[in-house]
């Protein structure tokens, strides 16, 4: 053993080579077991990424065709009577006409499940529509898509639906629909716009609540101002503690609490985001007060300035720009949060978005999603620009 | 004439910063205070304009006991005493011009100045001060965009705005390079010689002290250990002030 090796061995706490260590092997075994367990318990199933893809593609396609604009519709309808089963009512073939659209059925009464031919004449050429079955009682059903050809004619086969037997006549309706006039904003767009305004105002109110309460509290939560006496130190710890607790509760939880308290709606959202803003801004503000440079205060006092002038010239310039920057940053966060706070009853655009999603109305949901993307992105750009200017 | 009698400062923690310091400064002097870090230089300067409250002793300036002043009277006295700091102590986010104008705060109406309004002649005076220190073209920049030397010139311009008869300079060149140090000290020398402003300046480097001082005062552990002309400090005196192991470092 060389002298150098000898010396090295004397140093306590010297580690052996990593891969020869038994502890490392044990560590790897434990890690493998933990990860295997985690894989099981979180139900990871990579196959689903493939099997679920078509549903996803369908939804994404709809989201990409948001119901943004609409056009006025005109429609054309024709009817035919039918009886299930054959009985005494003896329905008639609709009368043929030179100009009006009419239907011709392959027969006029039958049992559910039998195939039935439906032919249409004199419809609007090259127009799509739908064939509906209207029973005497109960709900109407859409049975078949209709596609009139260039001469306004179509022929389709349907199966007689499983309707209860009735003496009264069943009705077959064909309705063709087409757009007329210029596109204009759809009702969905109008709803989304008004809800978006509500969302932005919600974020503004929450930020305002946060600022008005956080500014005074931030001084009480600044260590450099509060460390002089034991009593002020208690206030400092108290407020700091409350800030930390309030901040650690997610705004969604606050929204649920306030939705119970004041009812579902934007007011609950204002309170939830406001609550979180007070704590978050209070912490940021107070840290700014703590990091104030005493040098300028000393220098301004030395010129013979009074207390007010010292605050205006030495303290305010040091804290106001960061206060503004933090406030805008918070507003940015609040806008982003307010778009989804509605999921849990906080009002705003999230509230209708989650409704549309639950009703599988993805084209409408698409409008809301796009509106959120645009607003959040704009807010992000504006806030970072303003912050750059201010600080 | 500034007279300090038996000045003692004991900080809250029990640290004795100044011990029974007495001295006299005649009008028009350029007094340099030397001493190691912690020897009480900054405390002494700050006691003179009461940025730090002395524990005991009297400070008599132009026949007025500064230690007895309060409120309005203290502010009126302070406005004739300019102060320059090692870290410049500018409001970094404000413009150079605003920083210079703040030197005028002791003179202007508090309410008008609170909303940022200064009389036109004060703005002109500020421009003049900036021209004097050679950075007029930087007037509208933010203070923290300037180099260290330029920031200290802003500090001097701010002090000039006070029409001071006394300038307290607390290690004004300790954060600057040698060349810039000389240019800053020359401004102080110029003020001292041409306008007759009394200058009290603490410095680290004995070579700088010798070059600019009309008189030198040395502090050690809060006590005056030397008072006299620059030429009187020989090697023996030097070791007395700075300790046996010290070596003189020259700044030319």
Plain-language structure description:
The complex is a heterodimer of chains A (391) and B (252). Chain A is α+β, with helices and mostly antiparallel strands and 391 residues long. Chain A folds into two domains: 111 residues, Immunoglobulin-like; 204 residues, MetI-like fold (Orthogonal Bundle), CATH 1.10.3720.10. Chain A has 13 helices and seven strands. In chain A, the strands form two sheets. Chain A has a four-stranded antiparallel beta sheet with strand order 1-7-4-5, covered by helices on one side. In chain A, strands 2-3-6 form a three-stranded antiparallel beta sheet, with no helix packed on it. The mean pLDDT of chain A is 87. Chain B is an alpha/beta fold and 252 residues long. Chain B has a six-stranded mixed beta sheet with strand order 6-7-8-3-9-10, with helices on both faces. In chain B, strands 2-1-4-5 form a four-stranded antiparallel beta sheet, with helices on one face. In chain B, strand 1 and strand 2 form a beta hairpin. In chain B, helix 5 crosses helix 6 and helix 6 packs parallel to helix 7. At the A-B interface, helix 10 and helix 11 of A face helix 2, strand 6 and helix 4 of B.
Secondary-structure map with pairings?
The complex is a heterodimer of chains A (about 400) and B (about 250).
Chain A: H1 3-10, H2 22-41, H3 47-51, H4 53-64, E1 69-82, E2 102-105, E3 115-121, E4 128-134, E5 141-147, E6 154-159, E7 170-185, H5 187-220, H6 223-226, H7 230-248, H8 251-262, H9 266-290, H10 294-302, H11 307-341, H12 349-358, H13 362-390
Antiparallel strand pairs in A: 1-7, 2-3, 3-6, 4-5, 4-7
Chain B: E1 2-10, E2 16-25, E3 30-34, H1 41-48, E4 56-61, E5 64-65, H2 71-78, E6 81-84, H3 96-101, H4 110-114, H5 120-132, H6 148-160, E7 166-170, H7 178-194, E8 198-202, H8 206-212, E9 215-220, E10 223-228, H9 235-242
Parallel strand pairs in B: 3-8, 3-9, 6-7, 7-8
Antiparallel strand pairs in B: 1-2, 1-4, 4-5, 9-10
Helix pairs in contact in B: 5-6, 6-7
């Amino acid at each position: 053993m060389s002298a150098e090796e000898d010396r090295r061995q004397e140093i306590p706490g010297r580690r052996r080579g990593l891969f020869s260590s038994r502890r490392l092997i044990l560590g790897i075994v434990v890690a493998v077991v933990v990860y295997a367990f985690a894989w099981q318990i979180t139900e990871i199933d990579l196959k689903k990424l493939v099997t679920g893809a078509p549903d996803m593609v369908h939804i994404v396609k709809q989201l990409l065709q948001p119901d943004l604009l609409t056009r006025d519709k005109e429609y054309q309808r024709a009817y035919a009577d039918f009886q299930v089963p054959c009985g005494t009512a003896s329905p008639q073939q609709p009368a043929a006409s030179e100009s009006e659209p009419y239907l011709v059925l392959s027969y006029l009464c039958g049992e559910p499940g039998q195939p039935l031919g439906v032919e249409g004449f004199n419809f609007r050429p090259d127009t799509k529509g739908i064939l509906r079955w209207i029973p005497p009682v109960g709900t109407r059903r859409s049975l078949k898509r209709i596609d009139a050809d260039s001469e306004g004619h179509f022929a389709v086969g349907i199966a007689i639906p499983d309707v209860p037997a009735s003496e009264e006549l069943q009705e077959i309706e064909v309705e063709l629909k087409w757009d007329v006039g210029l596109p204009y904003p759809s009702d969905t767009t109008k709803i989304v716009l008004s809800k978006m305004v509500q969302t932005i105002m919600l974020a503004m109110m929450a930020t305002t609540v946060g600022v008005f309460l956080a500014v005074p509290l931030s001084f009480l939560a600044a260590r450099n101002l509060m460390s002089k006496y034991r009593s002020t130190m208690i206030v400092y710890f108290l407020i700091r503690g409350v800030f930390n607790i309030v901040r650690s509760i997610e705004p969604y939880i606050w929204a649920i609490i306030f939705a119970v308290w004041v009812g579902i709606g934007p007011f609950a959202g204002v309170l939830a985001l406001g609550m979180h803003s007070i704590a978050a801004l209070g912490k940021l503000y107070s840290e700014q007060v703590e990091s104030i440079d005493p040098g300028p205060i000393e220098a301004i006092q030395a010129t013979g300035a009074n207390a007010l002038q010292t605050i205006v010239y030495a303290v305010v310039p040091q804290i106001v720009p960061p206060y503004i920057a933090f406030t805008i940053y918070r507003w940015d966060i609040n806008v982003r949060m307010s778009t989804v706070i509605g999921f849990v009853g906080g009002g705003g655009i999230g509230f209708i978005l989650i409704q549309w999603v639950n009703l599988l109305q993805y084209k409408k949901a698409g409008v809301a999603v796009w509106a959120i993307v645009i607003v959040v992105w704009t807010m992000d750009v504006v806030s970072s620009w303003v912050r750059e200017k201010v600080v | 004439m500034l007279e300090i009698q038996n000045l003692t400062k004991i900080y809250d923690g029990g640290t004795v910063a100044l011990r029974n310091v007495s001295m006299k400064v005649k009008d028009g002097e350029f007094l340099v205070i030397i001493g190691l870090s912690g020897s009480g230089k900054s405390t002494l300067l700050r006691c003179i304009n009461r940025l730090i409250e002395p524990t005991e002793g009297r400070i008599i300036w132009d026949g007025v006991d500064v230690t007895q002043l309060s409120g309005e009277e203290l502010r009126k006295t302070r406005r004739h005493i300019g102060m320059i700091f090692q870290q410049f102590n500018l409001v970094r986010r404000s413009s150079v011009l605003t920083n210079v104008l703040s030197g005028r705060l002791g003179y202007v109406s508090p309410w008008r100045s609170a909303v940022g309004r200064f009389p036109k002649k004060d703005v002109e005076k500020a421009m003049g001060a900036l021209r004097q220190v050679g950075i007029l073209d930087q007037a509208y920049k933010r203070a923290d965009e300037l180099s260290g030397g330029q920031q200290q010139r802003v500090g001097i311009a701010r002090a000039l705005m006070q029409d001071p008869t006394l300038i307290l300079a607390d290690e004004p060149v300790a954060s600057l390079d040698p060349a810039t140090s000389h240019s800053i000290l020359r401004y102080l020398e110029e003020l001292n010689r041409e306008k007759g402003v009394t200058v009290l300046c603490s410095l680290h480097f004995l070579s700088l002290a010798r070059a600019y001082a009309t008189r030198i005062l040395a502090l050690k552990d809060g006590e005056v250990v030397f008072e006299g002309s620059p030429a009187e400090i020989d090697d023996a005196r030097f070791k007395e002030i700075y300790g046996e192991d010290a070596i003189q470092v020259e700044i030319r």
